[in-house]
Design a protein that fits this description.
Layout (H helix, E strand, L loop, with lengths): L39 H8 L5 E6 L5 H7 L2 E4 L19 E6 L2 H11 L29 E5 L9 H16 L3 E5 L11 H9 L1 H5 L1 H6 L2 H7 L7 H21 L5 E5 L8 H4 L2 H6 L6 H5 L3 E8 L5 E8 L4 H14 L12
Parallel strand pairs: 4-5, 4-6
Antiparallel strand pairs: 1-3, 2-3, 2-7, 6-8, 7-8
Helix pairs in contact: 3-13
């Protein structure tokens, strides 16, 4: 049963959830901070206990980022596992729909209901849904977990880095085999796929002067954050995306999971997030896994000195949701970050 609708970033195209039309939901741990976006309202609702589970969409981190900022658990499943029929698209080649919930176990129960082939969604994969909670208590002893030596740990707030490293120690204590890896497909520039496909879907709105004027600053800033892409650039990026699927599969032949930070810092203030420089620069880690279509899970892994939550991101091979959720559950059974609740006066 649906309990209601939650707020999100305009057209799901941004990571702040600043919304001049319907208001900005505050971070449940500090009302001066953003909840992240685009699925910020969903993460807030779960963190405050308003819902067992909420849906989100993720084109470059819009499930995992809000989950990390709000201290809850978010799953971006394998591309095509959950139908996107009825969802206003940002990028048909990169959008993923998935659950935000309190725990990996709750995500497993939710995705069992959400997953499955939908012939009315041309991007839906003909893969049957599984019982994603089956075997979730097996543990992670002997799993090979790769920890990237490039890109993901660059530019982290010191407190965030310390909490993620502590989370890796927990995985090690649980019997996982941690090993250094290099992610071979980190992009030297952002892909233009999202901007091209978002603009194409909204072309009538963009061409209508009155409708265009109603779009918020954050959406316009992200849409035109650099030169207009050419058809050749769009084609090249689609070819590159296909290559990333292959590279991701090759990497997951050497490790079972990848562990990275969920966010590089704790939630920014609402005032900071509204600046043009922040709107242009703010991107979540892990957008590469939207390109490769791999499932990724964000679990809370502690609180920084400012009292705000931080997330650990675990990524698996395509169609390996059960393994991914099993690892998240094992971590959460060894810690209590996912059961912490914000106070009413936060």
């Amino acid at each position: 049963m649906l309990a209601g609708k939650t707020n999100l970033h305009e057209f799901a195209y941004g990571g702040t959830n600043l919304n001049p039309h319907f208001g900005t939901p505050p971070n449940p741990w500090n009302r001066d901070r953003i909840p992240g976006g685009s699925s910020g309202g969903s993460a807030v609702a779960v963190a405050l206990g308003m819902a067992f589970c909420a849906t989100g969409s993720d084109t470059g981190g819009s499930i995992r980022g809000p989950a990390a900022y709000c201290g809850v658990t978010g799953l971006k499943p394998t591309f095509g596992l959950i139908s996107r029929r009825g969802v206003t698209p940002v990028s048909m080649n990169l959008d993923h729909v998935g659950p935000i919930a309190r725990s990996a176990l709750d995500c497993a129960l939710a995705v069992r209901v959400m997953a499955g082939h939908d012939p009315r969604d041309p991007y839906s994969a003909p893969v049957p849904a599984e019982d994603y909670a089956a075997g979730i208590d097996v543990g992670i002893r002997g799993l090979r977990i790769g920890v990237p030596t490039n890109h993901f740990f660059d530019g982290l707030e010191p407190g965030v880095k310390a909490l993620v490293r502590s989370a890796l120690d927990v995985l090690d204590d649980l019997g996982a085999d941690l090993m250094d890896i290099e992610i071979p497909w980190v992009a030297s520039r952002p892909s233009c796929i999202t901007r091209v496909e978002f603009s194409a879907f909204h072309r009538e709105r963009i061409e209508d002067r009155d409708l265009f004027a109603e779009m918020c600053k954050g959406t316009l800033t992200r849409m035109w954050d650099s030169e207009r892409p050419t058809a050749a650039q769009y084609y090249d990026d689609l070819q590159r995306k296909a290559e990333l699927v292959r590279l991701g599969a090759d990497l997951m032949g050497r490790v079972d999971l990848i562990a990275t930070p969920g966010v590089p810092r704790t939630a920014p203030t609402i005032a900071e997030a509204g600046t043009e420089s922040f709107l242009r620069s703010h991107r979540y880690p892990g957008g590469e896994f939207n390109q490769s279509g791999q499932p990724t899970l964000s679990v809370p892994c502690g609180f920084a000195v400012d009292g705000l939550p931080v997330g650990l991101m675990l990524t698996g091979g395509r169609w390996k949701e059960r393994l991914l959720l099993r690892a998240g559950h094992a971590y959460q059974m060894a810690t209590d970050w996912h059961v912490r609740r914000p106070t009413a006066d936060a």
